[in-house]
Amino acid sequence: MSSDTPATTTYIRNPAVAATEIDAETFLVEPEEGEVFYLDEISSALWRFLTEARSEDDIVETFAAAFPDTDRAKISADIDAALVDMDTRALIVKRQAGGP
Amino acid sequence: MVESTGRQTLDPDAEQTDEQPGFWWIGPETDPVLVENAEAVMPYLPYYLAGWGIVWAGDAAPRAPDIRIVEQTDGTFQVLSFGPGGADFAFDNPYDAANGLAGGLISVFVGRNPRMICLHAGAAQIDDGLVVVIGDSFAGKSSVALHLAVLGHRFFGDDQIGVTLDNPSLGLCLGLMPKVRLPLPEDCGDPFREFVDGYSSMQGDDMAYLKLWEGEAGTFGDTVPVRALVFLDRKDPATGDDGPRLHAASRPELVKTMIRTAFAPHVASRDLLAGLTRLADAADSYHLTFSSSRDAAELLSSEFRGTPTETVR
């Protein structure tokens, strides 16, 4: 995703997705099929972060600052994989900066 | 929901018998399930289901049936259920078709109540609270529930349990007859063997269906407050048996398991998730690691017997 995605692309929660937190763990209900997803640690943190539209670079920067002992390349790869996964499942939506 | 060992692909060319079907009301008097053409299957229904009222509804349909049984000329049966979670199964013989009818009756019944779902679970009443054991396939739900019955606790189900999505939550007995896989495990103990031998109403090569006496088992429609949800985590005894261990379970673990195993086609996912969270709040939650179902049941019995039942938080 990193190589193909313009820097102006941002990600935000799909507002139609219902979220439930149970003891700090996140469950999401996808609106079309009603499928229930359970988020792992990375995706859960990402979900909490995407209350506002964020670019992938912005997300990686924030997570790298929050986890200074973790290799930045690994953070970047994990975030990239989580964004692809959540986008595929329509849990988040992509926006182009300046777009709708 | 009910195992249909005779499931097969339907033959669209198979001819139906041309006997005039009759109609039957089955289930609670206030809101029974209407079944079409159950005559050939009905004699075998008591092997699978108990406590459901059966009333002849006549030769003419009083309304659209909830379940239709089609008897093919080759002796096979098709059981179709309609509404949320409706299904279409084929069976080789009337015994298995009765099993399919039992499953259909439960799915129609549960699907009518927006406050109730069906958990793939076993349960037994200890004192005046229900201990519900949940887990994935082959986790030991049935054997733990039956071992609790052997220990004198009122059996509520070993496969499907109705539960209300409230706090406090009520468990509802669906009247499904217990069954055990054969051969029995070597470590099941003599009391369990005697229990199975004494209560078997029908045995196949790999399954025995049991019929418990009134009072030993709940009957269809009985309700008991859910006191505890127990996630079963069965270990291979070859890896070392330290005996069963019971500790607090995380609510997310329980909710994940219940979402995977719940039958609730009539409840929107969002409401189901909220309801299961309430259910996990309403009952004490445990994780039970064990290798022997007998030992697991003895631990549950000693843990919950004679202790206060006010578990609503």
How is this structure best described in words?
- The complex is a heterodimer of chains A (100) and B (313).
- With 100 residues, chain A is α+β, with helices and mostly antiparallel strands.
- In chain A, 37% of the residues lie in helices and 25% in strands.
- Chain A has 3 helices and 6 strands.
- In chain A, strands 5-1-6 form a 3-stranded antiparallel beta sheet. Chain A has a 3-stranded antiparallel beta sheet with strand order 2-3-4, with no helix packed on it.
- In chain A, strand 3 (25-29) and strand 4 form a beta hairpin.
- The longest helix of chain A has 17 residues, at 72-88.
- Chain A starts with 8 loop residues before the first strand and ends with a strand.
- Chain B is 24% helix and 30% strand.
- Chain B has helices at 94-111, 141-150, 190-199, 251-261, 269-282, 293-304; strands at 23-26, 33-36, 54-58, 67-71, 77-81, 87-91, 116-126, 129-134, 154-157, 160-164, 170-172, 179-181, 200-203, 207-210, 223-234, 245-248, 262-263, 284-290.
- A 6-stranded mixed beta sheet of chain B has the order 3-1-2-4-5-6, covered by helices on one side. In chain B, strands 7-8-15-11-10 form a 5-stranded mixed β-barrel, surrounded by 5 helices.
- In chain B, a hairpin with a 5-residue loop joins strand 4 and strand 5.
- Chain B starts with 22 loop residues before the first strand and ends in a 9-residue tail after the last helix.
- Classes of the chains: A alpha+beta (100), B alpha+beta (313).
- Chains A and B meet through strand 2 and strand 3 of A and helix 4 and helix 5 of B.
